[in-house]
Amino acid sequence: MKRFILSVILGFIFLSLPKIGIASDGVKYLVITHSNFTNSVSPLVNWHHKRGIKTRVVSKSSWTVQMVKNEILAEYNSQTPPVLKWVLLVGDVNYIPAYTYYYAGNPARPYPSDAYYSFLEGNDWYADVGIGRLSVQNTTELGNQVNKILKYEKDPSLDNWLNKSLLVAAWEKVTNPYFKICKEGVRTYSYTYFTPTFDVAYANDGATNSNVTSSVNNGRNVVNYRGEGAPQMWHSWTGEEPQGSWTNSNINSLNNGNKTPVVFNICCKTHKIDYWGDCLGEAWMKKYPGGAVASLGASEESWSKENDTYDKALYWAFCGSENTAHGLEPPIFDIGWVSNYAAAYMLEHPDSLPQAEENVRMYLWLGDPAMEIWTGVPGVLDVTYPSVVKGNIFNVTVKYGSTPVQNALVCVWKGSEVYQTDNTDDSGIASFSIPMEPYTTAGYMDVTVTAHNYLPHEDSTYLYRAPKLTGCFLINGELLASLHWIWEPGPYTLYEYKLSRYMKGSWQIIYTGTNTSYTDPIPFSPGENRIYVVVVYFSDGELSSGKLSMTAPGGCPYVFSWDGTEFSDDNNILAGSGNGENVSDFYKLRQSLIEENGEYRLELREFENEHSFIDMVKLIAIDHSEDIDIEVLGDNIILPYRDAIAPLYCVDQTGEDWTEVMANPNEGYFEGYEGDTLTMNFGEIESGRYVFLPMASPKSGPIDVAIYNSEAGWQLIQSIYPREHSSVSPVVANHLSNDSLKIQLIWHSYHRLEYAGLGKIRNADYHIKPCPLVSATHSDIGSVKQKLLVDDENYAELLPGDTITLEFEVVGIEPGWVRDFVFVSNGYYLTEENGGSQTAYSNIPLVHSLSLYPNPARNDMDIRFGIPREERVSIKVYDVSGREVKTLVDDRLEAGYHTIKLDGKNLPSGIYFARLETDGYEATKKLVLMK
């Protein structure tokens, strides 16, 4: 069936909404992988996640034993009670190290153990998770093993090979060969769930390697060897040396195609995964096509009587057996817990407890620990559900013929919008409540059903939803609403869309047609609100979108750049000014400037319900090589970096995952409102100075940025002020250790975040080249160049409708380098209140104001304030405990703008508060001293 997934769906959804439809049972399958193998293991990871086993991948370029154990423990302990069930290690021991135990405590006999990673609770040897490893050295080996596993799990050959098990017993020079007796115990046991069709290869009865080869080539679901072993062989199992061994070469000569068995090597050393060459278990797994789909074996010299118990218990686990062991009750089908049951049984029924414990530590799986062993030829499920979901109720019925299948796992999954699981009841029904708009959008939703001994069902249903209507403002001399909508017809035929507008008390249809975008030609007035609705008409009826409310912004002048033909909107300036707060704004232009007649041209415009006061402007060219990127902080601090990385994971305050969105700008965004948070983890990186790169919009207020310190917890490092159009607001993050770097953003008002990256600040060649101001022409009064050359509070004023055209001299660029531009502006703006206005070019403010610059500061800081009338003024500085530390002003002052300097040399680093009090006005600003 066709899969149609919109790019905005892959980029998650537009709104920051509660985590609805996401399974809340935590991660059940954890993958620990070397970064070389992340992509190649993803088909297996995606399959488990798709079938309803929530997965998580942790990928690093370097691992230690303690790092592996810590990741597993952290995930295991993240849920109460724990839900983590399986752990897959991807890479051989050179990539993902095994723990080292010592045989019988002898330091001269170390052996590798993956079982160590399964001991998570208590001081015992009972596994708490199923552990498996794909021991590979390259992506080709990994791809082959993943292919074998997926073929076995999803699409095995449908004949009776899945009923069969080969029992192999090594030769012994005794009347009653012990290995054969063990195998006969397996063969003749009265199993309660499933009895395999056994064939045997007993060396004491004359069996040889040819018997094993013939059986495996003809297809055996389980191959079970009991005898002597060595790292690369069943050692001399036929009684002849050396030709009587089953070796890597015998495996590589197999021709068993897709009939790949699960192999139990119950003997010594066949899984010595730290051996100089491939051990026998690795040979079973690396043979492709053919070989084995999973292999179990010991990494050292295992104890014989405990091996017999362990061998029999493996069959009891998946065929039905000797009751429970450590709370585990057969039948158990996934291989990770099949061996955990056998190990628990061996510990509870030991011939020698120390020897049983040693055996538990040395046996390990090569394969997928969540893979189930087939117990017969799988049936085909009859799965029924609606082909189209129009509401929120969605039921899936699972039967085999006319018989309901109970406890089948059903998973519905649609990108980040829907991920739910349910097990069928005794009527074979799984029920789901699918979120409606605006939490979900139209498109195909995967439906996957799995049940033991049935082939998986994989298909999809169409999630039918109303159009998704979004809008933004275009600023091109006036404010216009640009509307866009998304609706996927799926199985239906589209007739037309109708877009309506509510304005000045009445509704009006403003567009009819099949386009999916429209610009309302009537300009907005500053602060005006309108409502839009789009209706889709299609072959099965009609459906309206949710109402989209748009309110014209008010605040900040804008800078426009000349593109060779016209001035185009770049972004707002004076970000962070608020209403009357003087700021210096350093902004890297989004668009490159076009040279014309030896000059670069910019325009400052004011359309909105405000007055802007510009004290100084500069244009700075930053030239650098193509292999680095540049960001700029206040005071023209240049931050060169290379190869920014995306967060390894990113979640909001509800736990919803936004990692993919943050890694892919222009493929969706997170919408945050007051109180929302995003927490990001960039993984374990070396200590140093980094630049955090949040790309946000529109302007409305600050977003706080905090960094996590293991000793002090979350610490605020900066507040950023997003602009109207999406752009990066860089933040310097000092990472003081080699631990994971975690950053949190806290919203105080509405903003969208499209991307968040992290680049390490590096030494790099770049040249800073100021472009001299040639002219500055005000649309009303002419030249204002002298007002804009220096920061002297001699302001050029922009009223609504005014423009200032700026021309800067072009300076030369280094051959082969590239150029970024930084526009520097100093000033503030005031929004009109109740129709009031201000006299042009007056230095008497309309309202009180208080600003701090720079903030944070190392020592000295300018405190600027404005008072609209003569009055008594008090400015004091307090520490976080509320203790007064300095009095800066306590006097009667004239109306106007004033600046005083805070001398912080004798104050320790930390957070302080500057408080302004006048007759009837109070204001407090936070200030930070960093030394």
Describe the protein's architecture and organization:
The strands form 14 sheets. Strands 38, 39, 41, 43, 46, 47 and 49 form a seven-stranded antiparallel β-sheet that branches. The model is unreliable at 1-24 and 832-842 (pLDDT under 50). The chain is mainly beta and 931 residues long. The radius of gyration is 35 Å and the shape is elongated.
Kindly report the oligomeric state of this protein.
Answer: single chain
Give the CA-based shape. Answer: elongated
What is the CATH C level class of the largest domain, in words? Answer: Alpha Beta
Mean pLDDT: 87
Largest sheet, strands/sense/barrel: 7 strands, antiparallel
The DSSP helix count reads 13
CATH architecture of the largest domain: 3-Layer(aba) Sandwich
In whole angstroms, the N-to-C terminal distance is 63 Å
Unreliable sequence segments: 1-24, 832-842
Number of domains: 6
- Helical residue percent band: 10-25%
Over the alpha carbons, how many angstroms does the gyration radius reach? Answer: 35 Å
Report the structural category.
Answer: mainly beta
